[in-house]
Amino acid sequence: MDETPAILLEQVNKWYGSMHVLRDVSLSVAQGERVVVCGPSGSGKSTMIRCINRLEEHQQGRIVVDGTELTDDLRALDAIRREVGMVFQSFNLFPHLTILENCTLAPIQVRKMKRVEAEELAMEYLRRVRIPEQAKKYPGQLSGGQQQRVAIARALCMRPKIMLFDEPTSALDPEMIKEVLDTMVGLAETGMTMVCVTHEMGFARQVANRVVFMDRGEIVESGEPNALFENPQTDRLRLFLSQILRGH
Amino acid sequence: MSIALSSGATPARERPPLGTTGPVGWLRANLFGSWWSTALTLALGYVVVRFLWGFIDWALIRAVWTVPMGPHGPDATICRQMKGAGACWAVIGDKWRFILFGQYPYNEQWRPGICVALFIALYAASANRAFWRRELLYLWLGTLAVIFALMWGGFGPLQFVPDDQWGGLPITLILATFGLVAAFPLAILVALGRRSKELPVVRILCVVYVELIRGVPLISLLFMASVLFPLFMPEGLNPDKLLRAQVAIILFAGAYLAEVVRAGLQALPKGQSEAAEALGLSYWRKTRLIILPQALRLVIPPLVNTFIGFFKDTSLVLIIGIYDLLTAGKVALADPAWTGFAAEVYLVLAAIYFMFCFAMSRYSHGLELRLAAARGR
Ligand SMILES: Nc1ncnc2c1ncn2[C@@H]1O[C@H](COP(=O)(O)OP(=O)(O)OP(=O)(O)O)[C@@H](O)[C@H]1O
Ligand SMILES: [Mg+2]
């Protein structure tokens, strides 16, 4: 069972109109593996990660998540979305619901959990991201870092097997980045399968089994983080690394 | 002791200078800030006072409240002598039941009277957030059933009254209530359909519906419903006039409300929908729990604006000979005893319409404030 990869992309292609945004992307993520995706802006990182839970549709190739292939079959899609949690750059909490309701909504509606159970579960995860005291507030009353931690808790409440992160810290002020990264490190330690788009190199070195570098819709290089950062094989990666190092 | 003394009065330097706050400060800042604004204030004040005084003089001081009965009904001679100088409220005293209930049989008018009271009670109950539960739906269905049973009658001691004899305020409330209650869900479906990417046929149908209906005046739609529609229907299968007018109003209101709802849907950031999908919510759950609650909240002011517009637009049914409140008022004026007292009747009609519309407007304002407060903004 453990040999089936959690996520498998084979020769995936995608176009927006005539723009080719994913070119023959192949990637296999083992269960429990933690992959960091980096690359310059517009290189297709978000598009790739959003194809994994079909917020975007790919046009060629195969995507298999947790043994189920992503097709037009809606039932398969529902099954996959139950197992895959996603955290967005802009948090996307539901502003008309309290923090607690944000967290219990999907367990109650999708997993058919009883309200009491769902609330217990939500409080457990809110404690884990260290904001149980905010449960009765609305998202608009929280700081960015707190909101992003709620978003992580909300996704975890579905007890997903896989977590996707699309630049979870890039909308945050520097002093809040650490609290969110700490939460993600904690999550990595539980053995969760994670695919994370981020430019936080420290985070990548600390938790990633593998870093994938994308440019212009292709996976250009991938490997163990230290090796990849110390020893880039391509000019594109060298250029990218020099740019983000200068930026920091 | 010293504590009591010092807490009695704020030290002078901590108080704002005299005359910059309170009503005096407000007046000074807003009405008499400069010589120009002072002049404008005085001129406008003069006009307003003159008008108000003239109105009070006409409507209250020199008004005629009752007239004696002549051999052929009320004798409006005193009213005619005062015409132009004083209002003649006697016309209302004599005609109010016709204005409110139209041609409904005179001795049975307590029935539509109860119906109006039921409608108002229903609105009041629905406005209370504490009652927003499933039971409210049953309350609506039950009350509406009672209203129609009372209006039609035909059982027990109640004589049967066909709906072409209904009139006045109950007709206005029936058309407006059913119109909006049915048009609102229709509007939501049409707005969703118009944004659907997966179902192009549905989208095109919704666009065609909205554009067709918006492109014609309500009057012509009512006219088609009352004159053209029966021509194409087989004999015997001819829904009555009130129902046809009601359907026309629902279709018309639906198209306008759909555009308001669509504006709310468009204003929502795409991330809300994506987050709901990523959590595995189905389309309908996502729409019901995430999208609509936020989208509708955003468009409360234009929604209520449209509601108010339609409440008044129901008066256009006069074109096809249905006696709503406004038509009943007009017909009441056709009584030879009272020709020429249109101002009084129309003022009363305006006051009735205003009460309902103003209540809607205040309610929506309160709702907005409460929803904003609930989100801690
Ligand atoms: N909905 C869309 N319609 C058309 N083009 C799109 C759409 N979304 C993304 N693109 C284009 O696809 C390309 C890849 O976008 P993507 O968002 O995946 O990049 P990214 O690597 O996530 O960049 P960033 O670091 O800025 O988030 C970009 O050139 C972008 O302009
Ligand atoms: Mg991106």
Please provide a written account of the structure.
The complex is a heterodimer of chains A (248) and B (377). Chain A is an alpha/beta fold and 248 residues long. Chain A is 40% helix and 24% strand. Chain A is built from nine helices and ten strands. In chain A, strands 6-7-8-3-9-10 form a six-stranded mixed sheet, sandwiched between helices. In chain A, strands 2-1-4-5 form a four-stranded antiparallel sheet, with helices on one face. In chain A, a hairpin with a 2-residue loop joins strand 1 and strand 2. The longest helix of chain A has 16 residues. In chain A, 45% of the residues are buried. The model of chain A has no long low-confidence stretch (mean pLDDT 92). Chain B is mostly helical and 377 residues long. In chain B, a hairpin with a 2-residue loop joins strand 1 and strand 2. The N terminus of chain B is likely disordered. Chain B has a two-stranded antiparallel ribbon. Chain B has a domain of 208 residues: MetI-like fold (Orthogonal Bundle), CATH 1.10.3720. The radius of gyration of chain B is 27 Å and the shape is globular. In chain B, helix 8 runs antiparallel to helix 9 and helix 11 crosses helix 13. Classes of the chains: A alpha/beta (248), B mainly alpha (377). Chains A and B meet through helix 2, strand 6 and helix 3 of A and helix 12 and helix 13 of B. The structure holds adenosine-5'-triphosphate and magnesium ion. Adenosine-5'-triphosphate binds next to helix 1 of chain A.
C-alpha Rg of chain B, in Å?
A: 27 Å
Biggest sheet strand order of chain B reads 1-2
- Average of the residue pLDDT scores of chain A: 92
- The number of E-state strands of chain B comes to 2
**Order of adjacent strands in the largest pleated sheet of chain A:** 6-7-8-3-9-10
One letter per element, helices H and strands E, the order of chain A comes to EEEHEEHEHHHEHEHEEHH
Small-molecule binders here are: adenosine-5'-triphosphate, magnesium ion
**CA distance, first residue to last residue of chain A:** 42 Å
What is the H level of CATH, i.e. the homologous superfamily of the domain at 161-343 and 352-376 in chain B? Answer: MetI-like
Distance between the termini of chain B: 44 Å
| Number of beta strands of chain A | 10
